[in-house]
Structures are given as C-alpha cells and as structure tokens.
Specification:
Helix content is 53%, strand content 18%. It has 660 residues and is an alpha+beta fold. Strand 3 and strand 4 form a beta hairpin.
C-alpha cells in the first residue's frame, strides 16, 4: 500500500510538472521562463527515474532508472542556480558561470551513462527485493561524494542570490522568493537524510528516496509560485503583445510607490527600470524625474482625478514628456497602486509653438494680402464675371475637368528657419511664380492654403485639353523650381531649397460660387477633387514629385513620358485607381530619363507578373544606375518581401493606403 501511494504521488508530480511547462510557455511573457522550464525538465527526469526504480522490480530496470535519475539529478542543481540567477538578474555575464558549473555534471553523467558499473562511482550495487519499497542498494565509490556535495555547492550559491534579493524586495514581494528558497533547501535536506539513513542506519525508511519524495512538494511550491503568486507576471500572449505595442510608456507602482512593472516603451525611456529592482522605491531609481517624484510624494491618496505634469529628462535632451498619474483603488476605495502614463509630446509642443510663431509672423502678411488672395483667378474668369454679373449667384454646374494640388515638402521646417520678412518674401515669390505658370495654361487658382496651391482646368472656360494643360503646368513648375531655388538663395530669402509635390486627377466635378451672398468663392467640389488632393500626399510614399491618375493620363494623347505605378485605394475613397508618375514631355525628355522610364517599366512588368526574383534583380540594376530613384527603392523592398512571403492567390494587386 505505501508503494502505491508513493507511485500515485510521483505520477501526480510528473503531470503537474508537464502542466507547469505548458502553462509557462503559453502564458508567460518573461524571457526568464526558459531557465525555469529547463529546471522543471530535470525534475521530471529525476522523479521519472525514481518511479521506474521502485516499479520495475529487477536490476536491469534499476540500472536504467538510475541513468534517468542522473540525467536529471546531475543537472538539477546547476540549472536551478541558472534559473535563480536569471530571475534575480545577477549582473555577472552568463558565460562566466554557466560553462564552469556545467563541467562537473557533464562529467558525472557521462560516467553513469557510459558504464553499467564503475568502481569510481559505485563499488557495488544490487536490487533490494526484500524492502517494502523495492529499489537499488549501492555502496559508494570515491567519486560518490562529489555527486553528493556538488549540488550542495550550487544550492548554496542559489540561496545566497535569493537571500540577497529577499533583503532588497518590499514586504509584499518577498513571499515568492522565500518559497523559492524553501524549494531549494527542501530537496537538499531530503537528499542528506536519504544518504544518512541508507548508509549508516539501514532503517525501514532507508528504502525511500526522500529527495524524489520532496520533489513532489517542490513541484507544488513551484505551481503556487508560478500560477497563483504570478512569479513571472503571467498574462495571455495577446494581452502581453498589446501592452508592448502601446506607443506610450506606463509604469505601475504599488500603494507605497514601489516599482512593480512597466511596458517595453517605459524600459526604453527609463533604463533604470530593471526586473531585479521590482519592489524598490520609484524615488530611488536612476534618471527618474524629480518633478514627477515631487508630484507623486504630494499625491492625494483618495483622489481619482488624473493629474497631468510636463517634464524633461537629462538623458533625452530636446524631448518634452507629459505624464498622468492614475490611482488604482479597490471596491472599498482604498488605494492599491498607481499607473503612471507617460507620453512624448515634443512634436505636439513644437507644432503649437511653430503655429504660434507662424501666426505672429504671418499676421501682418495676412491682413494686407487677404484681398489680393481673393482675386487670384485667371483673367478669363474675371472677364466672364464682369461681362455677366449673374455668375456671382450661388450655385454650380457639373463639368468634366482636371484638378491640380501642390504642396511644399517640409514647409514647417522652412517657416521655422525664416524671420517674418523672409517668410513673406518667400511666399510672395513662390506663389506668384507658380501661379503664373498655372494661369499661362489657362488654369484657375481656387485658393491658397498656406504654401499649397489648389487649382483646376476646364472652368469657367471649357477646355478640351484640360488634362494635358494641368500636366504641362506641373512639368513646368518642376522645371522652374531650379530657378526659384537659385533666386531665393542668391537673394538671401531662404537657405533651404523648395521642392514641390503635385497631385493631378480628372473627372466629374461641381464648379461654381459656393458660400453666402456676402462671401462666396468660385471653387470645385467632388470625389474627383478629393482624389487629386490625396495623390499629392501619396508622393511621399513613393519618393515621387508628380502623380496623376490613370483617368488623367488617358486624356493626354501620349504626349507625356510617364511610368506606371501601383493600383491603390486611398483613404476615404473605396474605388481603386492606377497611378502614374509624370517624368517629362516625350519631346523634351533627356536620353537618361527615357532610359530610366524604360528600365522601370520592364521591371514593373515583372513585378506585376509576380516574378519576384527577376523583379528584385531588375530594380537593383536600376538603383545602381539611378541610386536616388524613389519608386525603384519602394518596389525593390516589396519584391524582396513577396519573394520571402508571397501574397495570397486571391490578391487583387491593390495596395490600401492608410495615411492621407
């Protein structure tokens, strides 16, 4: 009966060990889980070997059982130390203690594994059939004491590390470490008791391996520590990933302001937040901001009001952070802890400051030029309104037209670098020059939005070639850009050159006077207009300067040198469209530009045929000759990506853009 009870308990311990491995690997978010799993595997080998030893009933089975036990027993204590050192974050590099400590167990296990009998380890052995708990009886050899005292050495090291961590931790976090200390000492004492009873007293209990029996208790301690005491900060994988994907940093404190946890972003922001410092006062951590410490020290423990505080960090110069202190309370209202949410608000604060400065710089400019901006229409529009005042009535007509949107790249940086006079001179010169080009092509200036120009072709005068005129205007604007940059540099208007992005689309649009009788604007509205605006912004994603829709290109009668790009679906518009980059007019294109267009079109055909390897090679070839070609860089990356992970067979080739 005692044998059956022990067998059941050991089997239950094995099942529990396997369960802990599964739970830890599935739910644990900490990298320390692997050292723990290796330790549990050695316990499984040790208890499995003992179960076989007391169950086999013969010497041959006993020898096999001893080998299995030593597979676990030889490595159990050093692996337990590795786990403790990893869990408590010992600062000694792993290679300096792992390799030396593994030499002895490898040597001992090699002896047991290689020989069924070896006088260096066992002078004799036999299977005891008379004992109530049948097992192997042995006489120790010269090396037996090494196998007995070496685990003692590793356990002592583990206890030193654990005791050191227990002293440093807060009272609430010591319990789990104390249980780990108990799980280290219990098998050690049991092993000495087993050796003493077997070799010196030969009592009834000498046939019971107390070490294996205590392993059952150790497993239950591990189970409590891991599953119930949350030793590894267990969380479902999806939850853990979600926490680390949050772009804002957050730090969790207990009711006494002791550090208890943080997400990945917080660890990047505060290098002092280490796992081994959990339980330490947040005020003692290196690089923790004094302003935030003062705010926490003066926190009202009964207030649920979120408090915002701005601060800077010495090791993050130029950055501005904002924090919110959120109290965590129980159902009774007692404070259980705090969550500190920290955001990088540098861009927001800089933008606000730039807006305020730009507002001051442009206030005078806007006051004096508002009426001038309201008159930026082509001469044809003015003549038509003068000849027919009824056109000032509110309303619009539906007409097939072309819209053109422009915007200056990084204009915020340019405006920040200029004084008010330079900014006024720059905008006057740039807007006048580019507007003249549009007006020369009989386009109409709809409005200016800061540095952006919104214009259209085909109203109020109907133009059959409105699409071609819009594209020619865009090409001439890019040609003129070189002269503009030279002039603003020579006249000391701006040290930063100007580069214009342009989006063009043709389609049905409503054009007319919109607004009120007192204030109206001759403008265009429609989904086709919105698409032109989106295409201007899409340039940023492809490294291009002029993008036009397929609808526009089809109306230019093949007079333009273009290259076909993606089929895309832009934000806010469900219908996918083909986009083209306009390079130059065919008659004015240089040999180099013609070569680039031909090479790219050939490579893009391979890409759309899903010949990823050939496409990747072709785009690489283009970049060796034209290293600054933005679209080639984009499609080279995509070709490499699709070569590794091809799209699904039902992929329609459309790329959904997520940014405006």
């Amino acid at each position: 009966m005692p044998l059956i009870i022990i067998q059941v308990l050991i089997f239950a311990s094995l099942v529990l060990s396997v369960y802990m491995i599964v739970v830890t690997l599935e739910r644990c978010r900490s990298d320390k889980r692997y050292a723990f799993v290796y330790c549990i595997v050695t316990i499984i080998f040790y208890t499995l070997g003992y179960l076989i030893e007391i169950s086999c009933g013969n010497t041959e089975g006993g020898i096999i059982a001893i080998k299995i036990m030593y597979a676990g027993g030889s490595f159990m204590s050093p692996l337990f130390f590795f786990f403790v050192a990893d869990y408590c974050e010992v600062r000694i590099p792993k290679k300096y203690y792992q390799i030396p400590l593994l030499i002895v167990p490898v040597f001992l296990f090699a002896i047991v594994l290689t020989f069924d009998y070896h006088t260096l380890f066992y002078s004799s052995y036999a299977y005891d059939y008379e004992s109530p708990i049948q097992s192997m009886t042995i006489e120790p050899g010269p090396l037996y004491l090494i196998g007995t005292f070496y685990p003692l050495f590793c356990i002592v090291l583990s206890c030193i590390v654990l005791i050191r961590s227990i002293i440093k931790q807060s009272r609430g976090r010591r319990f789990g470490l104390i249980l780990l200390l108990a799980s280290a000492l219990a098998p050690l004492f049991a092993n000495f008791a087993y050796v003493i009873l077997m070799f010196y007293f030969r009592t009834y209990f000498a046939g019971i391996n107390f070490t294996a029996f205590v392993m059952i208790l150790t497993n239950f301690i591990f189970y409590y520590n891991v599953v119930r005491n949350d030793m590894f900060d267990l969380a479902p994988k999806a939850h853990a990933i979600t926490l680390d994907l949050i772009r804002d940093a957050f730090v969790v404190l207990d009711y006494g302001m002791a550090f208890t946890g943080a997400n990945k972003k917080a660890h990047e922001l505060f290098p002092g937040l280490k796992e081994y410092q959990k339980g330490a006062s947040i005020f003692s951590l290196k690089n923790w901001p004094d302003k935030l410490s003062n705010e926490l020290e003066n926190a009202n423990l009964s207030s649920d009001v979120q408090r915002e505080l701005e601060f800077t960090l010495p090791h993050k110069p130029g950055k501005i952070y904002s924090s919110w202190q959120n109290r965590i309370s129980s159902e009774s209202g007692a404070t259980q802890g705090w969550i500190i949410l920290i955001q990088d608000v540098t861009e927001t604060k800089t933008l606000i400051r730039n807006i305020e400065e730009a507002h001051q710089k442009l206030q005078y400019f806007n006051e004096n030029l508002r009426r001038a901006f309201s008159t930026y229409l082509s001469e044809e529009v003015v003549e038509e309104i003068v000849s027919d005042p009824t056109k000032l009535q509110l309303g619009g007509i539906n007409r097939h037209m072309t819209a053109l949107f422009t915007d200056i790249r990084k204009f915020a940086s340019i405006s920040e670098a200029l004084n008010p006079k330079q900014l006024v001179d720059l905008l006057n010169y740039y807007l006048s020059t580019m507007s003249d080009i549009i007006l020369e092509q009989k386009g109409t200036i709809d409005k200016y939005q800061g540095d952006a120009i919104i214009s259209f072709f085909g109203a109020p005068l109907e133009l059959k070639d409105h699409a071609l005129r819009a594209c020619l205007a865009a090409i001439m604007m890019k040609r003129t850009e070189k002269k503009v940059n030279k002039d603003i540099h020579d006249k000391n208007i701006s040290p930063i050159p100007i580069y214009t992005r342009i989006g063009i689309n043709s389609g049905e649009m409503i054009v007319g006077n919109m607004g009120t009788q007192k204030k109206m604007n001759y403008t265009i509205i429609s989904n086709a207009v919105n698409l032109a605006a989106r295409l201007e912004s899409v340039n940023k994603q492809y490294g291009t300067w002029i993008l036009a829709s397929e609808a526009t290109i089809q109306e230019t009668e093949e007079q333009l040198l273009t290259r076909r790009l993606d089929r895309i679906r832009v934000v806010g518009i469900q219908e996918p469209i083909r986009i083209y980059e306009i390079l130059e007019t065919i008659k004015d294109a240089s040999a180099e530009t013609l070569k680039l267009a031909q090479l790219f079109n050939d490579a893009f055909n391979l890409f759309e045929s899903q010949k990823w390897t050939e496409a990747e090679s072709s785009f690489n070839n283009i970049l060796t000759q034209f290293p600054n070609d933005g679209p080639s860089r984009v499609f080279l990356k995509r070709s490499a990506k699709f070569r590794e992970n091809p799209p699904s067979p039902d992929w329609d080739g459309v790329f959904n853009l997520t940014e405006k």
